[in-house]
Amino acid sequence: MKVIQHSAETLHTALLSDRQDLVKLYRKYTEQEQRLLEEGFHAGQPGSLFQLITVHSDSDWIPSHREEPQDFKSFYTDPYRKSPDAGHNTVYIQTIGPFGETGVQTDQYVEWLRKYCQAFFTGLSVRLMPPVTIAETQCCFRVNSDSHNLQILTGDLLRFLGDRKPKDAFCIVGITMIDLYPKDSWNFVFGQASLSQGMGVFSFARYDDNFYSRNYAGRLKAHVKPKQGDYFVFDGYYTPPISSSLLLRSCKTMTHEIGHMFGIRHCQWLNCVMQGSNHLEESDRRPLDFCPVCLRKLQVSVGFNIAQRYKALLHWMEDDKPTATPHEASASLRPLHLPKPTEAFHDSKLWLHRCLDILENRGV
């Protein structure tokens, strides 16, 4: 295992910049906000809020993808990065295909994701598009020759999203429980995005704990050989059970990929949700939130109050009041309360409380 450790001076420059106008902009943060952000300079030390990046093998993202680290100055001066404006300030989420065994369960899960994104990107509006079936997208699909599960083609899905993207969208993201592939020569892909067009599609299929086992329920029988257009094969097709770990992984993936829409590249400074990942084990090592460098990038793009954002995230993790989902409202049903499975978020809740202790001078 290799630990990536930058000097305090290097992290200082990455966060503040060596440009005086950007340093002056940084000084507009309150004393408490600066103290929080500068906790990153002490990463890896006992009691630090932020941790160092650990590389466990050559198959991890950083050894296999040579990328130039993006400091705040590089981000701020990037002529291609996009920020929300008055006419484009909504994140749209498009569900594609089945998301659970029942309509109420599906709607509740997707609403949890929407509310989490609403808190994570405090200041933006996050809305759900009407759900669509695989057939409605008219996408190509295949049966993976190795894992024997159904997969849908990302390029077709991106074209579908492009046709449906609302005029006030900052971005539109498609999410699905069906596995993805970008072209015939690839085994699979977790997701694919067009940052210039503000859209992406991502799958949570491989976040099932049993996906890589021979007992995976999504494996098709050998005699099942659907042809293009046989969309009935997706009727009743297996989707992962909604668990705390699936919810955690889904929230992490969605916010990571939407983060790219702002022009935030893969993080190489500290342990951060914006780190790249090649496999599930590496993805699970990432925290739920930003390091200080990436937090400043998002904050300057959206303009939120840091403490209010952390409070919104904490409220999402701790609040479990039943709310009527779109399915229940349209069917005039009495709301069915499905407890939000947030057990996997325990460490993140403790971390948020520690951040707020600094931001609000509570016991420090």
Tell me briefly what this model is.
The chain is α/β, with parallel strands linked by helices and 364 residues long. The protein is 37% helix and 12% strand.
What report would you give on this structure?
The protein has 364 residues and is α/β, with parallel strands linked by helices. It contains 14 helices and 10 strands. It starts with a strand and ends in a 5-residue tail after the last helix. The mean pLDDT is 91.
How would you describe this structure in keywords?
alpha/beta, 3-stranded mixed sheet, 37% helix, globular
Helical residue percent band: 25-40%
Q: Beta-strand percentage?
A: 5-15%
Count the DSSP helices. 14
Order of SSEs, N→C?
EHHHEHHEHEHEEHEEEEHHHHHH
